[in-house]
Design a protein that fits this description.
The structure is a single chain. The chain is built from six helices and six strands. By secondary structure, the chain is an alpha/beta fold. It has a single domain (2-11, 19-94, 149-212), classed as Peptidase C15, pyroglutamyl peptidase I-like (Aminopeptidase). It has a four-stranded mixed sheet, sandwiched between helices.
């Protein structure tokens, strides 16, 4: 959290230049790129951060309620559509169907086995999280196999460092007419390698510039 606070604390808020803050975070729960639509004013860390801090159910901005959301000022639905189309047409990124489906299907099978095992999950909250995880994987598989998609919209950036960074960034950019923030969750590098992820980022930047032109 300290690094995020220091970074945005040092940003010049008076520049006339258009600024776009693009944040990337790795998610082991996804098999495709997820463009986050919003951040939540809550920090509930499952593990301590680099400074050993592990807040639980605390607001990021103490002046707003913990259930406050800040939305990206870019048109996320349009971005998802145009990035998918751009990558499909340019052929610079290997289709996700060639990269992730075996892993996804294995994860879905495993989650169903865990859910069906007696007493394997003791808390209702854990069952809900597992169901959400499985549902998201199944949605990703459907989008990849039926539409050839590379990315989708997400409205849940989590409650750990990724969400803390995104909400802080959205708070910084929200009042500025020429300042934008976007967070993307990417799959692990052993699932989609760096070269392909670079092609995704290049397509994303191209589509953002096009949207703002």
């Amino acid at each position: 959290m300290k690094g995020v606070d220091e970074y945005f604390g040092n940003q010049d808020g008076n520049s006339d230049l258009t600024r776009i803050y693009i944040h990337l975070g790795v998610s082991g729960n996804t098999i495709m790129y997820e463009i986050e639509e919003r951040g939540k004013n809550e920090k509930s860390f499952r593990v301590p951060d680099e400074q050993g801090e592990a807040p639980q159910k605390e607001p990021i901005n103490n002046n707003l309620c913990i259930d406050n959301y800040l939305n990206c000022k870019l048109n996320v639905d349009q971005l998802v559509e145009e990035v998918n189309e751009h990558l499909e047409n340019c052929k610079t990124h290997i289709p996700l169907s060639d990269l992730v489906l075996d892993s996804a299907n294995d994860k879905i099978k495993y989650s169903l086995i865990v859910k069906s095992t007696k007493d394997a999950i003791s808390e209702q909250e854990d069952i809900r999280k597992l169901e959400d995880y499985t549902s998201n994987l199944e949605k990703c598989v459907s989008l990849i196999t039926k539409n050839g998609s590379f990315c989708k919209k997400s409205n849940n950036a989590g409650l750990f460092i990724c969400n803390y960074c995104y909400y802080s960034s959205l708070h910084h950019t929200q009042p500025k007419h020429n300042c934008y923030s976007l967070f993307i969750h990417v799959p692990p590098h052993d699932l989609i390698n760096i070269d392909n992820q670079i092609e995704f980022v290049k397509a994303l930047v191209h589509c953002i510039v096009k949207q703002l032109s």
